């Protein structure tokens, strides 16, 4: 600016020559701003470090807070934010439906390179907005729909559920386990079944009682549901819910509990046996790298396992006996080695009929579409 002020008094011709010389020597950002459009078309500017930055948006169904589903996703976002070639933004507590469509559209308009929609109910809004913004990449968590610029992703959290079932079945005295669950969709049903299979492997007399809340996040409702299960004689409470309210209810009642999404031990330190947890960082970082390298592909489904580090269980509490810990760690080692026999037949449904035949294992399509309960579950899938 000071240089320009000094040049005000110079003749016009000299000024023009100096300005042309300055354009030739200016940094790339100034050159883009000053050159006419036809010059830019004739010779595109060289790539800059700024041009390599990937902009990623994240949409959460509940508050980030300090525990739970959105908190776990946000830890993954923070891993992306730490990359030198990525920037992120997020929107929390976005209801499924029209509100999510609006947020998705706004993020796409803001120039996000990729948008992660992290709740099942965002699926149809993602598909709609993706048609409007074909140059924006979308990743939908836990859904099944895809498009040229839409892929979906999830993790085999049922593996962690199975391990927590082993613990719950070992720790119950009443043989009644309580499960506070959000919605009767395959993701949730599959987790309940895996938990039940694990519990009944170590204790065939166990029953798993399910109460549906029909919400992902409502601490008061979640706590009331847990209390109803405790009143019914359940002495271990687990959940498919975002908040630690069910954990708090269990501790207040002198029962045990198992958390979900993130390690919830701090909310019920006297009661929490462990938690089935997510680690989204590796998946999110890999995806951002693919976007930056130009290798990201739409119309894909990603379903990572314990081997990939996306699902796990939190450290087991001190109240869990050493022999139970050893047994669970041995089963975890099998899963880490790729030996997943959780749903290997024979598996019976609630009516006692063989739903998965002996010697067979359901493929991913059957698992992803699971809409029935295994033997030992008390509740309905609606």
Give a short overview.
The chain is an alpha/beta fold and 382 residues long.
Could you name the key traits of this structure?
6-stranded parallel beta sheet; single chain; 40% helix; alpha/beta; 7-stranded mixed beta sheet; 15 strands; 382 residues; globular; 19% strand
Give an overview of the whole structure.
By secondary structure, the chain is α/β, with parallel strands linked by helices. It is 40% helix and 19% strand. It has 14 helices and 15 strands. Strand 13 and strand 14 form a beta hairpin. Residues 1-50 have low confidence and may be disordered.
Structural topology:
Blueprint: H1 2-6, H2 12-25, H3 28-34, H4 37-42, E1 54-59, H5 69-81, E2 86-91, H6 98-109, E3 114-117, H7 123-132, E4 137-141, E5 150-155, H8 157-171, E6 176-181, H9 186-202, E7 207-212, H10 219-231, E8 236-240, H11 245-252, E9 256-261, E10 272-278, H12 281-293, E11 301-304, E12 311-313, H13 322-336, E13 347-348, E14 354-356, H14 364-368, E15 377-378
Helix pairs in contact: 5-12, 6-7, 8-9, 8-13, 10-11
């Amino acid at each position: 600016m000071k240089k320009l002020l000094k040049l005000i008094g110079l003749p016009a011709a000299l000024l023009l020559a100096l300005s042309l010389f300055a354009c030739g020597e200016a940094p790339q950002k100034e050159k883009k701003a000053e050159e006419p459009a036809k010059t830019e078309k004739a010779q595109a500017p060289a790539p800059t470090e700024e041009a390599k930055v990937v902009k990623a948006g994240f949409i959460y169904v509940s508050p980030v807070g300090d525990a739970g589903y959105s908190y776990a996703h946000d830890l993954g976002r923070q891993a992306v934010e730490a990359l030198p070639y990525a920037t992120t933004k997020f929107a929390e507590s976005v209801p499924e439906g029209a509100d999510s469509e609006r947020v998705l559209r706004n993020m796409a308009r803001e120039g996000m390179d990729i948008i992660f929609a992290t709740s099942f109910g965002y699926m149809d809004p993602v598909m709609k907005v993706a048609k409007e913004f074909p140059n924006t990449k979308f990743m939908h968590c836990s859904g099944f729909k895809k498009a040229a610029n839409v892929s979906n992703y999830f993790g085999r959290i049922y593996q962690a559920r199975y391990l927590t079932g082993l613990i719950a079945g070992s720790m119950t005295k009443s043989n009644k386990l309580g499960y506070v669950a959000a919605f009767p969709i395959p993701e949730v049903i599959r987790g309940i079944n895996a938990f039940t299979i694990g519990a009944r492997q170590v204790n065939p007399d166990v029953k798993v009682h399910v109460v549906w809340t029909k919400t992902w996040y409502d601490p008061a409702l979640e706590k009331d549901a847990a209390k109803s299960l405790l009143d019914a004689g359940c002495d271990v409470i687990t959940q498919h819910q975002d908040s630690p309210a069910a954990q708090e209810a269990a501790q207040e009642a002198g029962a045990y509990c198992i958390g979900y999404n993130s390690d919830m031990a701090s909310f019920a330190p006297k009661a929490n046996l462990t938690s089935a947890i997510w680690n989204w960082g590796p998946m999110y970082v890999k995806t951002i790298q693919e976007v930056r390298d130009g290798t990201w592909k739409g119309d894909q489904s990603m379903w990572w396992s314990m081997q990939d580090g996306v699902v796990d269980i939190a450290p087991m509490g001190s109240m869990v006996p050493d022999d139970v810990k050893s047994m669970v760690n041995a089963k975890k080692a099998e899963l880490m080695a790729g030996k997943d026999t959780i749903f290997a037949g024979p598996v019976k449904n609630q009516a006692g009929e063989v739903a998965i035949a002996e010697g067979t294992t359901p493929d991913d399509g059957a698992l992803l579409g699971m809409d029935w309960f295994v033997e030992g579950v008390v509740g309905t899938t609606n």
